[in-house]
Write a structure and sequence with these properties.
The chain is of the alpha/beta class. It folds into two domains: 169 residues, Rossmann fold; 145 residues, Isocitrate/Isopropylmalate dehydrogenase-like (Rossmann fold, 3-Layer(aba) Sandwich), CATH 3.40.50.10750. Helix content is 45%, strand content 16%. It contains 13 helices and eleven strands. The protein has a six-stranded mixed sheet with strand order 8-7-9-6-5-10, with helices on both faces. The radius of gyration is 21 Å and the shape is globular.
Length: 333
């Protein structure tokens, strides 16, 4: 896909440092080998070095020796990171004993490496639950200023090029936050616009969706979208944002002319923001399956540094693509 090629090429130029906490997971290790060979990022693997190198030899991986390998349980900076974590979490009652144990956890050490400036981003969850990946991220890296909610976007690459920008669209939230409030939905809209620029390389035209278009229905769920639209426009006056719009009014010009003739977004949207996770998750899967679209993601957005969550059913190619995407996010900071 042309877009993925562009993402990979940009990653090659960015020279970012990506940490992979699941250093002994087979798909992750194979993806790291490819990422190093293609110069997508400087890779840090977490895990026992002897075990990692033995696995690399078993799978015929030639580039793993070029990665930085850190053993969470036995490294010269373990005490340093424990003291740093204890200081960061002292207001929550963190003790040195607890901190020392936590920095032996690759998911905690990965976020500590980002916080300390050793790495620029993280890719995980091939072998861990999303909650386990996000917990240390929230505690240590935290969210961007002005953002309190993390969300998950998908880049949708459509066969029908009449939609979006030559078939490229971005959907959110499809992965994280079940029922955002109006202020949270506004944050998701703005964050998704930023993702569209940084990763999908498109000028975002953002539609916040509802079952109503410009007052065609009255309901508290519609009111939430109307308020979110207003807040998002105030948060990011540089972005093109409109709502509330039904899906057809957002992407079909002939419908837009009837339902929302004064909107500069209606009929032309390339970023769709859904009112709840339920709607977003169902929608992206239907588009993926029924329209044969390629869904790239989820791309986590809203964190102060890029930390991305894989599906535990991911392929090696998925991990490679997410390494490149994370490098793109890091370069856009």
């Amino acid at each position: 896909m042309k877009l993925l090629e562009e993402i990979h090429n940009f990653a090659k130029q960015a020279g970012k440092r990506i940490v992979l906490p699941e250093g002994t997971e087979e798909r992750t290790l194979k993806a790291a080998d490819i990422a190093i060979a293609e110069n997508l990022a400087k890779i840090t693997l977490l895990g026992n070095k002897d075990e990692i190198m033995a696995l690399a030899q078993k799978h015929g991986l030639k580039n793993i020796e070029k990665a930085t390998i850190i053993d969470p349980k036995n490294n010269e900076r373990k005490q340093y990171f424990a003291e740093m974590l204890c200081e960061l979490r002292k207001s929550k009652g963190m003790t040195m004993e607890q901190a020392t144990k936590l920095v032996e956890d690759p998911l905690y050490l990965g976020t500590m490496l980002i916080k300390n400036g050793d790495c620029d981003g993280e890719v995980a969850s091939a072998d861990n639950a999303t909650g386990d990946v996000l917990r240390p991220a929230f505690q240590i890296v935290k969210t961007l200023p002005g953002i309190s909610v993390v969300s998950g976007a998908f880049i949708m690459i459509l066969k029908d090029k009449t939609y979006g920008d030559d078939g490229i669209m971005v959907f959110a939230d499809c992965a994280v936050h079940p029922n955002p409030t109006a202020p949270e939905l506004a944050q998701i809209a703005v964050a998704t616009g930023r993702t569209a620029k940084a990763i999908a390389k498109i000028d975002p035209r953002i539609a916040i969706l509802s079952f109503s278009t410009k007052g065609s229905a009255k309901n508290e769920m519609v009111d939430k979208v109307i308020e979110a639209t207003k807040l998002a426009q105030e948060m990011a006056p540089d972005l093109k944002i409109d709502g509330e719009l039904q899906a057809d009014a957002a992407i079909v010009d002939s419908v837009a002319r009837k339902k929302a003739p004064k909107s500069e977004i209606a009929g032309k949207a390339n970023v769709l923001v859904f009112p709840t996770l339920e709607v977003g998750n169902i929608s992206y899967k239907l588009v993926q399956r029924l329209a044969g679209a390629e869904a790239v993601g989820p791309i986590l957005q809203g964190m102060a540094a890029p930390i991305n969550d894989l599906s535990r059913g991911c392929s090696v190619e998925d991990v490679v693509n997410m390494i490149a995407i994370t490098a793109n996010q890091a370069a856009a900071k």
